[in-house]
Automatic annotation (TrEMBL):
PANTHER family: METHYLTRANSFERASE-LIKE PROTEIN 24, METHYLTRANSFERASE-LIKE PROTEIN 24-RELATED. InterPro entries: Methyltranfer_dom, METTL24. It comes from the Eukaryota. Residues 6-176 form the Methyltransferase domain. It comes from Pomacea canaliculata. This is Methyltransferase domain-containing protein.
Length: 203
């Protein structure tokens, strides 16, 4: 679907009441538009798109210029990467926990069909928060791009990241797609894994 793979076996993506949250856009709505084209309502989130206001992109796609985090913060200062260099976060970014966003949009009692995270290294803390809070246990499909950089997550947090990765499996999330790439040199490292999970406890 666009630039992400989604599982449709056994009607895992219903034609009615399909709700998708997509975090990390960088102006590429191909996944979001593709999911909307099959009848899903899609909410797209990216706090780095500073020149883009909240808006209704199409009949079923809604953009919100906020990001997902493990804590609510109105002035989050991100690490400087290629995205932040393009759009410096002078006043910080508005960030919210998933629970807060569901309440904000009136979706607390609705079922998320697909949750997608492509948030440049912050997915480790966010996923841990989703697991700790129990909110991820109700999500049928979880798509995430894992990132490891030379300096992020900080070295002392890498064991937590490893624990988070394996906790997903322990919670019943089964990989059905894996892909990624490695870019490394003597001075830099970028390891990216684009993966998709099915929640076997939900399906």
């Amino acid at each position: 679907m666009g630039n992400w793979l989604v599982c449709f076996d056994d009607n895992l993506v219903p034609q009615n009441n399909c709700l998708v949250y997509s975090f990390g856009i960088d102006y590429d709505f191909s996944f979001d538009d593709a999911m909307a084209a099959i009848g899903c309502t899609v909410y797209s989130f990216d706090p780095s798109m500073l020149d883009t206001a909240d808006h209704k992109r199409g009949d079923r796609v809604f953009f919100q210029r906020i990001g997902i985090s493990d804590k609510d913060d109105d002035h989050f200062v991100p690490r400087v990467d290629r995205y932040v260099k393009k759009h410096p976060a002078v006043k910080g970014w508005p960030m919210r926990r998933l629970q807060t966003i569901l309440d904000l949009l009136g979706h607390r009692k609705e079922q998320l069909t697909v949750l997608k995270l492509d948030i440049e290294g912050y997915e480790w803390n966010v996923t841990r928060d989703l697991l700790d809070s129990g909110i991820l246990s109700s999500v049928p499909q979880f798509l995430v791009e894992w990132h490891l950089f030379k300096d992020f997550p900080p070295r002392e947090r890498v064991p937590d990241a490893v624990d988070t990765y394996f906790r997903l499996n322990d919670m019943g999330f089964q990989l059905f797609v894996t892909g990624g790439f490695y870019q490394g040199s003597a001075t830099s490292l970028r390891l990216t894994g684009e993966v998709a999970y099915l929640n076997t406890n939900r399906n």
